[in-house]
Amino acid sequence: MFPRNCWYVAAMSHEIAPGAVISRMICDVPMAIFRSLDGTMSILLDRCPHRLYPLSEGTVEAHGLRCAYHGLVFAGDGGCREIPSQSEIPANACVTAYPARESHGLIWVWPGDAALAASTPLPAFETGEGYLSGLDFSCLDPSDLWGVAGPHVIHVDANYMLAVDNLLDLTHTAFVHAKTFDNAGVLDSTRIVKATGEQQLIDFFGFKNSMSAPLRNGYILDEGVPLFDNYLETYWQAPGVMILVHGAVAEGGDRERDGAIVLNTNILTPATERSCHYFWAQSVYRNRGDGKVRDLWEVMTKAAFAEDEHTLQRQQANLERFGASSLADDVSLILKADKAIVLARRMVSRMVRGEEAAKAA
Amino acid sequence: MFPRNCWYVAAMSHEIAPGAVISRMICDVPMAIFRSLDGTMSILLDRCPHRLYPLSEGTVEAHGLRCAYHGLVFAGDGGCREIPSQSEIPANACVTAYPARESHGLIWVWPGDAALAASTPLPAFETGEGYLSGLDFSCLDPSDLWGVAGPHVIHVDANYMLAVDNLLDLTHTAFVHAKTFDNAGVLDSTRIVKATGEQQLIDFFGFKNSMSAPLRNGYILDEGVPLFDNYLETYWQAPGVMILVHGAVAEGGDRERDGAIVLNTNILTPATERSCHYFWAQSVYRNRGDGKVRDLWEVMTKAAFAEDEHTLQRQQANLERFGASSLADDVSLILKADKAIVLARRMVSRMVRGEEAAKAA
Amino acid sequence: MFPRNCWYVAAMSHEIAPGAVISRMICDVPMAIFRSLDGTMSILLDRCPHRLYPLSEGTVEAHGLRCAYHGLVFAGDGGCREIPSQSEIPANACVTAYPARESHGLIWVWPGDAALAASTPLPAFETGEGYLSGLDFSCLDPSDLWGVAGPHVIHVDANYMLAVDNLLDLTHTAFVHAKTFDNAGVLDSTRIVKATGEQQLIDFFGFKNSMSAPLRNGYILDEGVPLFDNYLETYWQAPGVMILVHGAVAEGGDRERDGAIVLNTNILTPATERSCHYFWAQSVYRNRGDGKVRDLWEVMTKAAFAEDEHTLQRQQANLERFGASSLADDVSLILKADKAIVLARRMVSRMVRGEEAAKAA
């Protein structure tokens, strides 16, 4: 199960040009996402009310999305604007429209109760000075302040919470990413997990690192530096929105003045119970390295996230081999490193139970 | 659900040469269809009673179909004629045989109560003079009277009634076949739908058309003719047997004397709840155009029916994405253009309910 | 259903080198089978207790199998030896270990109640003099006494009892293997089926044969010999362990002195209800023919067992087309040739019912 009364990223702006339409499964709901010729985004249930044909097979025209089967046209608000075989439009000729927003290159959708969407802001973390200014996802806008690799999307055959788990216990990087990120030092971290609200937490790892290229290049550290301070700080908002602030600096140096800082956006959207969309980007603070560092993070992260994709899919497949479809019930052995996972899963469960209670009432 | 006490087309004569056997799913029943060396067609349940092996894997011999596993031989009546490992043939050594008929190049099967088959004639429409003489499917026999493209079969991953719907609302041709049949004029038709019996109806479209090649070539109309009379008249018999009489003539001309007339046989047979066999042919009246017109209809119809196949499969897939397996319950928005569909579905539902009531009694 | 309190072959020794690990489904249980660097075999449930990741994705190290996700290490007894992210190892940090034995090149596993494994010897048949000395599976050890083709494994998409049935009614060879083994004479056999214990039986076929190459070459018979004595004697132990003693000798000759004798090991292990592992070997007695005869049996058996694989998979698929998953309920027509099958299925059913009764008690 997943909460429905929240904003999920449905797509990236660059996926849908004016006049384009795509089909995407969001929270078990097939949606047709399209952009009008003047640029407005709309998201409709991907099913014509007439013969239940997928609207995403249709074409975007001036007054809406035209169904490819019998030519009915629906506007972004779900209302029917034309029925080619008759002049009257019946009152029930309409399709569900989902609240949609576009911001910082991401298209967000609200799959739940539409009445609640208007009063709920898009997810964002409290911002601060310097690199913390990017925590409202403005770090996704390329500028002098941010060199941006992405955003990209991976469609993963695994429950979205397995991907959240993965990001909320970064000790996995010592094993899954031994050949890419190469930071076994994470196992000896100072670790701080703290809830920062009913649906937010921060998960901090600080450790000494001595690894060689390529991560060292990503942090613009001289080969001569024997040991450096490495940190990984994940800002999480339920259920699947994260920015991982990471960086390194020569031992004892000043994080911002002497080191490299990168904001790694990771956003998970449920497709079905057993699949999800994984949106990510790496934003290099102050765009250091004139694009080369950004490109390096692009290449390195693609390689590493392919490892995550493999891992998550094998984990999902194993859960299914054993007849379970998720780890939601926490039947597993809990380690100290799972502290953030346990906390996050409790917050998400509370959201789901809250929605169920509201429905039952 | 589908009616079982009726004749369905199982195969085309040319698919099964003497000595050949094929497996085909008809109404959720796997059947082995074979032709003896002397030409007789037989249809058996595709399951040897011994170890339940598919008989369609076997070989046709002089006295019947020999199972490929332990060599038992079954005659066309389902009786066992030989058991290689023993001399006695037990009384229960038999397999269900289905009533089968062959006519005008089609092989028909009766999947329901065999006792009712004998008294039920093969489907055919009332014939008349001229081009109406072909309505008993004699239009499938190539002759001076009929230039025949087909019959052909398409195996479609969609419920057979979705294909029936498709043919009983030809307004779809303006959209699905915009690039092949190119007859948007159908949207402004004079439309007459009338029941002609408990299990038959006629669905007539008459309209003015001005489209260019290739449809114009199919109707052998001069380029100089600015506007012509186009008609599409579907004869339907429940649940899935249709002949679409179509043609065109220069405005105000005589349909038979001055125009081209084509009979388009369309027969849908359920394979499973989510798949069907679509048999079709185009028969050019008086074989006009010396075979060239027939060939043109063959090519044009193949292209157009590939569009239908795509459409039907996408529609079926969408129904399944939303958890429904058919449109039988008519949860959809009903338009005026759906008049024939609604009438036909009611007739088919009545047949199914009748069979259920007879079983319960 | 399959019995669980018995030894099944899980793999062949040569499949798992020191330091190797494979995943294999045995009786619906995913197992990780690995060999330590010093050669010890261990079999664990293929699921890390932490995040339920498949252990078979991991690596074999000095002190056990390391999970590829967060690096936990498990010894062959299922106990956790290391958790990289913390120093303490909780008491519940363990995984199910299955009793495992290795003998004559086969790795056996006990998927049921581990307490019963210690007191149950590995399957073997009573041995005797000469070629009967190999019936304890020592015929799988290449030596002067045995020229061994195999062992090999085929992963078959069919219930394991369909494969047992196949081997307990060798009349199928006249049809399925008409082109490979070419021994239609089996249909006129002297046939003796006798139970030799609660879970063992012997199934004997003796017949005259006159077939040509290649089977004649396998039995080292001169072309000039017009007719010879052929025998097929299957030793079966429930549920899926068999040795088929087969051979031929010129009519009236002495089986051991003048003929060729081959022991064909056939062992079936359930993977799931609809798939199994089929381990086989051919052991040529006294290694006659200097390896050429052994090679001939290797090639001929591979070709013939590919025919069996096809047959079993088509049979399974047909059972599923008709909504059944096995023939366990014996809904089929029983012939005289099915005597051994009926007897064997009864013995296996008794085992399953016994286990169910023990569980309920």
Automatic annotation (TrEMBL), chains A, B, C:
Keywords from the named record: 2Fe-2S, Iron, Iron-sulfur, Metal-binding, Methyltransferase, Monooxygenase, Oxidoreductase, Transferase
Keyword Cell membrane in annotation: no
Entry annotated with the keyword Kinase: no
Domain Rieske: 8-109
GO terms (BP aspect): methylation
GO molecular function: 2 iron, 2 sulfur cluster binding; metal ion binding; methyltransferase activity; monooxygenase activity
Domain of life, per lineage: Bacteria
Segments traversing the membrane: none
UniProt feature coiled coil, ranges: none
PANTHER family, per the entry: 3-KETOSTEROID-9-ALPHA-MONOOXYGENASE, OXYGENASE COMPONENT (PTHR21266:SF60), IRON-SULFUR DOMAIN CONTAINING PROTEIN (PTHR21266)
Protein's UniProt name: Vanillate O-demethylase monooxygenase subunit
Organism field: Rhizorhabdus histidinilytica
